[in-house]
Amino acid sequence: MSRSIATYRIYDDQADFRKKATSIAVGMTVGSWTELPAAKQEAMQKHLGEVVDIQVHEGWEPGSRYADISIAYPDINFSRDIPALLVTVFGKISMDGRIKLTNLDLSPEFLSAFPGPKFGIDGVRDLLGVHDRPLLMSIFKSVIGLSADELREQFIRQALGGVDLIKDDEILFENELTPIQKRVRLCIEAAREVEQQTGKKLLYAANLTGHTSKLRDQALRAIDAGANALLFNVLSYGYDVLHELSSDPDINVPIAAHPALAGAIYPSPYHGIAAPVLLGQLMRIAGADLVLFPSPYGSVTMPREENLGIRDDLHTVKLGVKRSMPVPSAGIHPGLVPRIIRDFGTDVVVNAGGGIHGHPLGTEAGGRAFVQAIEATMKSVPLAHYAEEREELKAALDIWGGEA
Ligand SMILES: CCCC(=O)/C(O)=C/OP(=O)(O)O
Ligand SMILES: [Mg+2]
Questions:
Q1: pTM above 0.80?
Q2: Whose CA is nearest to atom 4 of ligand 1?
Q3: Are 263 and 228 in contact (CB under 8 A)?
Q4: pLDDT at position 35, please?
Q5: Are the beta carbons of 28 and 65 closer than 8 angstroms?
Q6: Which ligand sits closest to the CA of 354?
Q7: Quick one: pLDDT at residue 404?
Q8: Do 291 and 284 touch, CB atoms closer than 8 A?
Q9: For residue 59, is pLDDT > 90?
Q10: pLDDT digit string (tens) for 250-262?
Q11: Residue 14 pLDDT
Q12: Is 90 exceeded by the pLDDT of residue 43?
């Protein structure tokens, strides 16, 4: 019988964890068990959840306790979609005290319904023709209220800085000045102009927004206007919307998943869903080609072990789909590039907004500083040494600091 296993961390100083685990396994599947007549029990056996592991630990505070509990849920109980999975394994019990969903071990049967990322790491690299180093992405900043000309000008400045991708900020929604088709047309045209000068291909991830019922048409309009990538605020819509977009054959461009709202779900040790599940595994099987998340060392941080957990879930062969590109973000500046590459390897996107636009010599110099920092790190040259002959990197290190 095909089963998917959910692991929870439950904090309770008094609980009989075996009893608690059994009540979850029964309550989230067949509802009640011991009261059922034998004939009914036999009929319902195939639907019954099972406690497969309980590990009890002493907590940090004296006398406190917690347990890691794993429960197997028969795949027969729920349909092959993420909403059904999440309601089954963490619907009602997510509201029942101090309990956090920390891991999902999904069955091959369940995973068979998920094509995963259309492009993945290798496909994005193929689009750009860059295979031997981290990618560099910049983010429009102070973008609300910009006219089309101002947006185009900012795009060109970023492109001339040598970035591989440019993304909308996640707070750029449909608006009268730069509706998606208009801004895609002007940015892609600008990308082609700059490519004439630099020879560099560019992906522009336009933010796909608006009512759910209109997203597919919106995406097709953007692609018709020349869009070669999309940004999507997954958690405000739900994973299944991403799944529908990513598995649509007509939406043939990479999708970058933004983590907006994730901070309401992953940080607490006592509640919510662990970051590797929320921003690693589920984003990848829902089809995100690139996944943004708070880095361990920027302005909006996430503990390093959770970052590395996301990295591992975006790469693991266990999920049986293409790998998604990790994009550790927020407060990234050139001095952090060696740490990023040390933690994530070269299959990573170095992503910055303020770290590019806030450069003392301007946006173009900000991009060049990152390009230089990546070059130095790939050559195993200390940034400070590499900066001796490169004013853009030197200015960035002077203002934001160098590698730890
Ligand atoms: C984790 C998401 C980061 C993000 O959306 C963003 O705009 C970052 O900007 P900077 O912190 O690099 O300025
Ligand atoms: Mg942003």
A1: yes
A2: 330
A3: no
A4: 86
A5: no
A6: 1
A7: 63
A8: yes
A9: no
A10: 999 999 999 999 9
A11: 83
A12: no
Residue nearest to atom 3 of ligand 1 (CA): 330
Give the confidence band of 61 by pLDDT, cuts at 50, 70, 90. Answer: confident
What are the pLDDT digits (tens) for 352-368? 999 999 999 999 999 99
Span 93-119, average pLDDT: 97
CA angle 274, 70, 244 (to 5 degrees): 50
Instruction: Collapse the DSSP code of 233 into the 3-class scheme (helix H, G, I; strand E, B; otherwise coil) and give the result.
Output: strand
Could you tell me the distance, in angstroms and rounded to a whole number, from the CA of residue 329 to the centre of ligand 1? Answer: 6
* Cα torsion 287, 127, 121, 303: sign: negative
Query: Smallest Cα–Cα separation from 250: which of 276, 222, 274?
Result: 222
Ligand nearest to the CA of 326: 1
Asked about 167 being catalytic, the answer comes back as no
Per-residue confidence (pLDDT) for residue 13, from 0 to 100: 86
Q: How far apart are CA 160 and CA 157, in angstroms?
A: 5
Per the rule left: phi > 0, alpha: psi between -120 and 50, beta: everything else, 165 is beta
Q: Residues 109-129: what's their mean pLDDT?
A: 98
Residue 247, SS3?
coil
Pair 12, 20: CB distance under 8 Å: yes
The two structure tokens encoding residue 289: 């080609």
Is pLDDT at 403 greater than 80 in this prediction?
A: no
| 20 Cα: distance to centroid of ligand 2 (angstroms) | 41
Only one residue has tokens 């639907």, namely 47
Using the predicted structure, report yes or no on whether residue 41 has a pLDDT greater than 90: no
The two three-digit tokens of residue 371, written as one number: 């390009």
Q: Which helix (H) or strand (E) covers residue 192, if one does?
A: helix 180-198
| Given 92, 167, 182, 201, the catalytic residue | 92
d(CA 234, CA 230): 12
Instruction: Give the mean pLDDT of 165-176.
Output: 98
Nearest partner of 325 among 315, 340, 338, judged by Cα? 315
What is the whole-number distance in angstroms between the Cα of residue 36 and the centre of ligand 1? 54
| DSSP tag of 276 | I
3-class state of residue 8 by DSSP: strand
The helix/strand/coil state of 6 is strand
User: Strand locations in 12-134, DSSP E?
Assistant: 50-58, 65-74, 99-105
> Within 6 Å (CB) of ligand 1, which residues are found?
139, 169-170, 259, 292, 294, 299-300, 329-332, 352-355
